[in-house]
Amino acid sequence: MSTAATINKGLFRGLNLRQKTILLISFMSLLLIAIVTSSVFIDGGSLSTDFGSKNLAPSLDHPFGTDWMGRDMFIRTLGGLGLSILIGAIASTISTLLSVILGLLSSVGKIEDSFVSWLVDLFLSIPHLLLIILISIGLGGGATGVIIGVAFTHWTSLTRVVRAEIKQLKTQDYIQISRNFGKSKWWIAVKHFMPHLFPQFILGTILMFPHAILHEASVTFLGFGLSPHEPAIGIILSESMRYLSAGYWWLAFFPGLSLLIVVLSFDMIGENLDKLMNPKKAQE
Amino acid sequence: MKQKKFGIFIGKKIIRLIILLIVVCIASFWLVEQSPIDPVRAYIGEMSIQPEQRAILEEYWGVNTPSHEKFFNWAGNVLKGDLGISLIYRMPVTYVIKERFTASLILMASSWLLSGIVGFILGIIAGMKSGSLIDKAIKTYCYVLIATPTFWLALILLLVFSVYLGWFPVGLSVPIGLTSEEVTLFDRVQHLILPTLTLSVLGVAQIAMFTREKLIEILSSDYVLFAKARGEKGFDLVLRHGVRNVALPAITLQFLGFSELFGGAVLVEQVFSYPGIGQATVAAGLRSDVPLLLGIVLVSALFVFLGNLIADIIYEFIDPRIKQQETTT
User: Fold this and answer.
1) DSSP A231
2) Which of these ranges, A166-180, A218-232, A241-255, B193-207, has the smallest mean pLDDT?
3) Chain A positions touching chain B (beta carbons under 8 Å)
4) How far is residue A122's CA from residue A100's CA, in Å, rounded to a whole number?
5) Which residues on neighbouring strands pair with residue B92, listed in sequence order?
6) Does one domain contain both B18 and B161?
7) Which domain holds residue B251?
8) pLDDT grade, residue B112 (50/70/90)?
């Protein structure tokens, strides 16, 4: 087949598809961990304002250029990315917890099941961005508003997956037998459902991440999210809009590109993990 | 028989819509009510006023009336078709929304069509040549597009085409300083191109990936194998057996994307300062214009519902495969 021919070419000569996938995942994870850790260790000194070197184009000293206060854009971007990843992580975790609870709830009975699917329809009935704005306003803005807003809008698809999975599991023979042996619903949920669902949760959280980060950045860009004092990517980009016509392209270009790369890395980690864990997809 | 079935279907949908709108009304009103918004501050802006005047305004905007009473007042007016007065535009909300939504509709419709057509063609090409270099290129392109922040893409396009090349104006839907009669069609189109382009980019990726997957699935089916055995090949085969089967699901998917389209419009309109519903949403949110914000929420819920309804109708009543399944069972 054509894939067999392409595998033994190029950079990863001699590795099989599985090893290549693991290598890719580790590389991407390393990149993201590096961004988060470095954003934690950024010291205030390098972010200090220096009007002597304001609005500099990218150079070796300042790879992303400097802004109108002479702050190094590379360091600001790094800090912003760290913040975005952090917020994305919290929001995705809350979102996953919500879908676990609602997914399990839908397995209890018919009324609960239709309630959960009605809730899913309800949350899909308003455009996500508008709903996040609404929730953020309701909570008075700030980081909490964004986190809750993003968390409450991203649980729907994973809930659907969990619901379908449980429905399918319930028809399996061993679940029936387990029930006939007198095991309680809770016991079956924990001992039989959970081991099946756990990989789905991990994967679901990782695949939710890129959406969460993008929505956080969008809402912050519009001015509903984090306060202008935070070094968030959305803030940096909305500030850059004022300097576009002056031709300071680096203020918008590099931070956005970095965000794109982070989102893409999460996407690739998720897709490849899926390939590793899902035997059906492993052969593709 | 068929008309009766369609009638029942539409009836059920209308009941669903009514329940949905009621819940959306209650939920969004509750959310806004939770927030520390001061309607008087939102109305007067930065002006300073006397305490007596403030008391009059507080009375007028109902600051001290209990929440449930406020809700029933508002909901009663909504039932009569009155969404209240916008605080920042000082005009009836229905009028503001009508004006803004028409402007946005042109933007959304054109980018919706563009993304649908381009995405579909790209998907067909990638699916036909799956595994080839061109397929890989299209796939990579789509992956990158999905990960791209909409507003950043808008900024970059603005930077390249308006600031550096000067081909397009920097913002607004018509030139400044002209009366509405002086605005030519060319002006309008020129102001529409960049926002439309940005907005369609997101949709392209989704529809192209979907079309590609579907086409590959169809091309590996038995009837395509049989067609190949009969001697059909190349583009003719794809056109006759592939495109026909992929088109309807792809169109359905495109209708299901109204929610994303609206969200994208908000971001794009903000960057290009295009005076549409998205920009009004941001203004209403930032400047605490509660009546306008609630009105927009309702209209957007209707808009999304309409898209889903059309998708359902296509699925249930137009797709010949579904029809056939029903007659056989």
Assistant:
1) -
2) A241-255
3) 2-3, 121-122, 124-130, 133-135, 137-140, 210, 214, 217-218, 221-224, 237, 240-241, 244-245, 247, 249, 252-253, 256, 259-260, 263-264, 267
4) 18
5) B85
6) no
7) 93-328
8) very high
- In angstroms, what is the C-alpha Rg of chain B? 25
Q: How big is chain B, counted in residues?
A: 329
Helices B277-286, B258-272: inter-axial angle, 10-degree rounding: 70
- Burial pattern B244-273, b for ≥16 Cβ within 10 A else e, equals ebbebbbbbbbbbbbbbbbbbbbbbbbbbe
Q: Are B291 and A156 in contact (CB under 8 A)?
A: no
Cβ atoms of B177 and B89 closer than 8 Å: no
Domain count along chain B: 2
Mean pLDDT of A13-35: 80
- Domains held by chain A: number: 1
Q: pTM here? A: 0.82
pLDDT band at A283 (very low <50, low <70, confident <90, very high): low
In 3D, which of A112, A118, A108, A67 has the Cα closest to residue A246?
A67
Name the B residues in 131-170 with CB < 8 Å from any A CB. 131, 143-144, 146-152, 155-156, 158-159, 163-164, 170
Nearest-Cα distance to chain B for A241, in Å, is: 7
Pair B256, B154 in one domain = yes
Give the residue from B79, B102, B119 where a domain finishes: B79
Closest CA to A71 of A62, A83, A60: A62
Phi, then psi, of B85 in degrees rounded to 5: -105, 130
Q: For residue B123, what are the CA distances in angstroms to A87, B88, B255, B257? A: 34, 45, 17, 17
Which DSSP category does A229 fall into?
T
How far from chain centre, in Å, is Cα B218? 30
